[in-house]
Amino acid sequence: MQNKSSIVLDMNLNASGFARGIKSVIGSVKNMNESMKDATNSASKMSSVMKGIGSSAIKVGKGLAVAGAAAATAVTALVLKSVGAFSDYEQLTGGVETLFGAGGRSVEEYAQSVGKSVSDIQGKYDSLMSAQNAVLENANKAYMTAGMSANEYMDTVTGFSASLISSLGGDTNKAADYANSALVDMSDNANKMGTDMESIKNAYQGFAKQNYTMLDNLKLGYGGTQEEMKRLLSDAEKLTGQRYDISSFADITQAIHAIQTQMDITGTTAKEASTTISGS
After folding, report:
1. 44-53, 158-167, 173-182: least confident range
2. Model pTM?
């Protein structure tokens, strides 16, 4: 049976090849558009020739001309939209590579950039690649786990990852795990509480900057103040026995996860995805 993850287009593998494919498609569509334009012109000429036959025939000719033009426009719009999405994907992937990986550099290029030999930095490089690939893999299956597209996932993650990585002492692999947990928590909250996803994103981005005014956006029973965030952390400590530091964005995301788990919010998105796929 085909693995579910294989259904997801793994664009981070051989992205350059995919880009060449996109360019080829664009060229083909341009040629097709020209052919459609020729067909449209021919149809228009045909309507003129058929004037002597009668008004019904003229309407047929005009209809063909309009249909040809509409088809060309629709195909062009579809391809441009697809190309735009891929362009966004490339840009967002670059952000992930910069924050979690080696900035898109090979191991030799990375070694040169830090002034060390390949053997000296191989372990660090492999660790960065592991974190980068984890984020990209999570993005590609985000439609199941977080109810969002790969592009939306990466856009959201890169919006607060610098603070997350910093609060974890530069551990990008741990940051990749925490980021995924936070994204799933955000989606679960939106599904369970009916909260607008954009307002949840804004709240988390605020927490990353130690701004707690949008804490009440999560509808967890806490107001938008620093004192209320401290109360949330205290309540989470009682649930898990773990200490949470308000100055650590990573701790805040984990504390929110603990509260949402206690409120039976955690897992809502995955459950919804599984029932949708099974058709029940």
Report:
1. 44-53
2. 0.69
